[in-house]
Design a protein that fits this description.
Blueprint (H helix, E strand, L loop, with lengths): L1 H4 L2 H11 L2 H7 L6 H29 L10 H18 L3 E8 L2 H8 L1 H17 L6 E6 L2 E7 L3 H17 L2 E3 L2 E3 L3 E7 L6 H17 L5 E3 L1
């Protein structure tokens, strides 16, 4: 209910402020007797715990794709910014991979959106399960996903992406319309200090287009 009354960022900021020590020091600054004061402190502590639970829950909702359960575009934008800053400070590298399910519209048209949703969830699960702890994967819209391979140059990222692409192509996905073999195409780019986030994405996106143009079910690099 609260989320419909104010923007998510304002709501999270309010919860964060209300769970701060400063807030509770202010709220608990009352002239009460011993037992009353102890009871009031217990009530405030319970309220603090509940508010922290709400904050964690709404943060999770704000940064998760509701269909697949993995990270969403908002989470990707923040993670990308963090990685660029880290790499600039430490002279590290990372690669960006854009994944796109081949002929996904045809799946929806032929078998319905329920089957399409099952395919999306299965692909998201597969991609996420093959990430290292330091890596990151998000659904950024439709049948498109994006991964950040941390401390991987383009050659390493290409090899990992191609291995995962092949694994997806070989394993049927169970759906309400029967087992479906699907393929996925992807484009890979590598971050360097002389490019920004938009250029990094555009390079991978162009590589993805090339993979589609070359026949799908393949990996191309920028």
């Amino acid at each position: 209910m609260l989320l419909t009354m104010q923007p998510i960022t304002e709501f999270l900021a309010t919860l964060t402020e209300r769970t701060s020590t400063k807030y509770y020091k202010h709220k608990s600054y009352v002239d009460l007797g011993g037992e009353q004061s102890k009871q009031r402190i217990r009530e405030l502590e319970a309220e603090n715990i509940e508010l922290r639970k709400q904050l964690a829950s709404h943060r999770l909702q704000a940064y998760r794709d509701p269909l697949t359960g993995i990270a969403n575009r908002r989470a990707y934008d923040e993670k990308l910014s963090e990685e660029i800053s880290r790499c600039m400070r430490n002279q590290k590298v990372f690669s960006l991979v854009i994944w796109d399910i081949d002929l996904f519209k045809q799946i929806n048209d032929d078998f319905g959106h329920q089957t399409g949703d099952q395919v999306l969830r299965a692909v998201a699960k597969k991609l996420n399960s093959r990430m290292r702890k330091s890596d990151f994967t998000a659904r950024i819209g439709g049948e498109e996903f994006i991964s950040l391979f941390i401390d991987c140059d383009q050659q390493q990222a290409f090899a990992r992406a191609d291995s995962l692409r092949e694994e997806i192509a070989q394993q049927p996905i169970q759906t309400n319309a029967g087992d479906k073999l699907i393929t996925i195409s992807c484009g890979v780019s590598q971050f360097s200090p002389n490019i920004n986030a938009e250029t990094l994405f555009s390079q991978a996106d162009r590589a993805l287009y090339q993979a589609k143009h070359n026949g799908r079910n393949r990996v191309c690099r920028a």
